[in-house]
Specification:
The protein is an alpha+beta fold. 22% of the residues lie in helices and 40% in strands. Bound molecules: zinc ion. The site of zinc ion has 7 residues, from loops.
């Protein structure tokens, strides 16, 4: 194909003047730009007008696949979060959020400031697609043209990032919340630019309690303060969502007082698992079993992991340090979770400390007797358990901060009834005796 042929074909596809296209093409080829690259560059140049030739076909959000290289997509901006990341050694400000059409949503990252605002309807022409956690995500950059539409697009999703804490999930961007500061402390960390002061603690609303980090301390964040935070982002911290506040977040005193309930919201195990993890949750459930690795256990002195027969997976043969732990299977009829109880809670239930457990194991010449004693205490009984629930590929764990027998436990009621029956029987026997 000659240059003339290329020019003619391109001009007719773009609806542009053949002579003009030919000159442009000749210019580019003269500077050793390969012909195909020169043509796509001209498609972009002429394509910015009414013609859409050379642009990716318009796609509905639900049709976009992680394997697509570029798409043209129309949707409504739901959220816009702004933050700074370090990319190839440089600090770069990026914008992130979600775009929706009538049926689906998709996350986007904008590497340039397209001046996006929640509620706007846009068409992103030539948006890149990448895979993020198995799902497609849009990359809006220098190859992308954003056209803002005058027409509104009705979408069945909430516009703007107003959220309750319970609804937040890792990956959420541009989030706004009204919360109480339940706990806060200042820390100095070794950050990417040396020592930096940050704030961390716990935020609460009526729906949940979540940990937070403020990477650029805001004055309004004080213990017991009711605050409104705009433009936070959520990431996972120890298996549960955590609120991240940055230099781009706006934090102000709230016009309303928000109750910082110190108690954890109660959920069914199924709901807590379905939420993907909860930082502080209470469940009421029966202990249906005690897993291996409960009772008297040994930990590696280097890394603290539990060891088997004196062998640490990372440190080889080590002198184990004794500890107490319970891995109890909780079931509340909706689902099951493994509650993990540390040294102190375990000692309380066992009714003895590590030394006493060691003594019992030595006498029995078998350390599994400790786990058996614990199982006798708790299996078949109902407990109120509070802690951090996390979900991973191996299942759900609840790291317990509190573990107490249910106040109105059916087992207790039955025992109390039995005690009364026995007493009256005893009384009857005594009365009947001469
Ligand atoms: Zn180790």
């Amino acid at each position: 194909m000659s240059l003339d042929d290329h020019a003619e074909e391109l001009a007719s596809a773009l609806g542009a003047d053949t002579q003009e296209v030919r000159e442009d093409l000749e210019n580019l080829v003269q500077y050793s730009v390969p012909i195909e690259e020169a043509k796509s560059s001209l498609r972009r140049k002429y394509g910015d007008g009414s013609s859409r030739a050379g642009e990716p076909e318009p796609a509905a959000i639900g049709e976009i696949a992680p394997t697509d290289s570029a798409v043209t997509v129309t949707g409504r901006v739901l959220t816009v979060g702004k933050r700074s990341i370090r990319y190839q050694g440089q600090d770069q400000v990026i914008f992130e959020g979600e775009l929706a059409d009538e049926e689906d949503t998709i996350s986007y990252t904008a590497w340039e400031d397209f001046d996006l605002a929640p509620g706007e309807a846009i068409t992103a022409i030539g948006a890149g697609v990448r895979e993020w956690e198995g799902k497609p995500e849009l990359n809006l950059g220098s190859d992308t043209t954003i056209e803002k539409s005058e027409q509104s697009l009705e979408v069945p999703y909430e516009i703007g990032g107003e959220s309750e804490l319970v609804d937040l999930e890792p990956g959420d961007r541009g989030v706004n919340v009204e919360v109480a500061v339940s706990e806060v402390e200042s820390k100095v960390i070794d950050g990417r630019d040396g020592e930096t002061e940050i704030l961390s603690g716990v935020l609460a609303d009526e729906s949940a309690r979540l940990p937070f980090t403020d990477w650029d301390p805001h004055d309004a964040i004080e213990a017991d303060a009711s605050i409104r935070i705009e433009n936070a982002y959520i990431r996972e911290f120890r298996g549960a969502p955590s609120v991240n506040i940055t230099e781009f977040s706006v934090v102000e005193e709230s016009t309303e007082e928000i109750a910082a309930d110190a108690s954890a919201p109660r959920h069914t195990i199924a709901d807590a698992i379905a939420s993907g993890g909860m930082f502080d949750v209470a469940v009421r459930a029966n202990v249906v079993g005690v897993r291996d690795g409960s009772g008297l256990i040994q930990r590696c002195p280097e890394c603290g992991r539990t060891i088997q027969k004196g062998q640490c997976r990372s440190h080889g043969s080590v002198d184990g340090v004794d500890d107490l732990r319970i891995k109890a299977i909780l079931d509340d009829g909706t689902d099951a979770v493994t509650a993990i109880l540390g040294t102190d809670l375990t000692a309380e239930i066992y009714g003895g400390d590590i030394a006493e457990a060691r003594e019992q194991a030595r006498e029995a010449m078998d350390q599994t007797v400790v786990a058996e004693s614990i199982a006798e205490e708790i299996v078949g009984r109902e407990f109120e358990v509070r802690g951090t629930l996390s979900v991973d590929e191996y299942g759900a764990n609840l790291n317990a901060t509190a573990f107490a027998a249910s106040a109105d436990e059916p087992g207790d009621r039955a025992r109390a009834l039995l005690d009364r029956v026995e007493e009256s029987e005893r009384a009857a026997v005594m009365e009947g005796s001469p």
